[in-house]
Amino acid sequence: DKGNYRHFMAKEIHEQAEVVGRTLAHYVDPAALSVQLPFVFPFDPVKLDRITILACGTAYVAGLTAKYWFESFCRIPVEIDVASEFRYREAPMRAGGLTIVVSQSGETADTLASLRYARQNRQCIVGVVNVPTSTMARESDILAPTLAGPEIGVASTKAFTCQLAVLACIAVGLGRAMGTLDRERERSLVGELMALPGLIVEATKREHEIEHLARTLSHARDVLYLGRGTSFPLALEGALKLKELSYIHAEGYAAGELKHGPIALIDEDMPVVVIAPPDAVFEKTVSNLQEVSARGGRIILIGDAGAAEAASVHVEAAVAMPPMAPTFTPIVYAVPVQLLAYHVAVVLGKDADQPRNLAKSVTVE
Ligand code: M6R
To answer: What is the value of pTM for the model shown?
Structure first.
């Protein structure tokens, strides 16, 4: 049932505050401001020395985002790969390691094959999965459910933000268990997590201006998405969403890579969506913004209310996000990124729920 929405995708974007809240409630003790993982790791966390994350598509983007959190909170190396590469590249894995598979459906063929490869290599497997009856849910040692509810739109939206929420909680919980994250920091991070549903509601209120922006963007042939730090994976996600829904060519890049090639693409016809939340690398992103601006690129800035002024460049459009703490910005900034792709598809008359050539669940490789 689509309710009052034109598409399941719109409904699912608007459900995110609720389902992220529900998912967090499963992993967080709000009174104690602590993460309470609903499972116990079957290994000594202090001895853990590597995490491997495997997934495809948008679930891979969630894993790539979580790498930043795991490295920061747990201080151990994280390897992340798309499952279609991982399963065939004879990756060495030391027995006793932790492998996290991320999947909405729990049936994606390559992710499932990677899970089985990890099992053969005696990993502890945590499945961050949305369908609790799926093969991956069954074959994981530990099921860490996303409580997004059924996702009907082919484009992953609410499953993605719930994956991010679960991975964030696991990273905090594991950091505590490993002794690399102190109680003080846990309290403040859990406070940041608990603020997310309200911030998602605020972000959703930007829909009207995003609709307007979508009309301009619908004429583009190519769109570049840039971000740094945890906004880099979100830039990949923005480009993926735009491609799959509107069939406009888009690329996501780490903002710092601009000079290493893609800057050659920039001219006055090239829209550049810059995701620049107020985090530790904001100033660095600003210098990339200035490089784009100097070459006449059309900047669409997704940042907080002061971002455009702080960057002191001319922007074609700015989407003002609510003020928030820096750690978990992708969970809120995902909303305008999803809405933009959705509305471009609607403007172009494309079927947002069922893009051409795509299946909801890729069960053959
Ligand atoms: O069910 P899964 O999460 O394993 O699916 C992975 C990808 O196929 C999926 O995220 C795909 O990229 C989406 N269409 C993206 O919107």
So the answer is: 0.98
